[in-house]
């Protein structure tokens, strides 16, 4: 019997992230739950923190943009927590998606 381990979890998170990236890149409509799920995969994989850091943003700056406290942003990144406020979670996801796109464009 196979055991669930950290490597299996990483592979699953990567596969889900790749699938959602494909949908996003193709302009497919994403529902609130899909965006919250995508946010969770970015938090669990450390992508959210890397995007924030590469963009030079602090916890406070992200918090101001999405309408939550800096403690919430820190908790999201460190404890892999998605904000309970659905609208804040969507704003967080959309901010990260914009940062990702801007960073990709800057690399070209």
UniProtKB/TrEMBL annotation:
It comes from the Bacteria. Pfam families: HTH_31. Gene3D superfamilies: lambda repressor-like DNA-binding domains. SUPFAM superfamilies: lambda repressor-like DNA-binding domains. Transmembrane segments: none annotated. GO terms for molecular function: DNA binding. Residues 49-103 form the HTH cro/C1-type domain. This is HTH cro/C1-type domain-containing protein. It comes from Streptomyces olivochromogenes.
């Amino acid at each position: 019997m196979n055991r669930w381990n950290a490597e299996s979890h990483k592979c699953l998170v990567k596969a889900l992230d790749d699938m959602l990236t494909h949908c996003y890149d193709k302009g497919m409509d994403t529902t609130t739950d899909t965006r919250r799920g995508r946010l969770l995969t970015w938090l669990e994989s450390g992508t959210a923190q890397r995007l924030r850091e590469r963009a030079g943003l602090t916890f406070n700056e992200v918090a101001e943009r999405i309408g939550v406290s800096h403690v919430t942003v820190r908790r999201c990144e460190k404890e892999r927590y998605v904000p309970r406020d659905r609208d804040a979670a969507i704003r967080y996801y959309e901010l990260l998606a914009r940062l990702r796109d801007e960073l990709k464009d800057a690399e070209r």
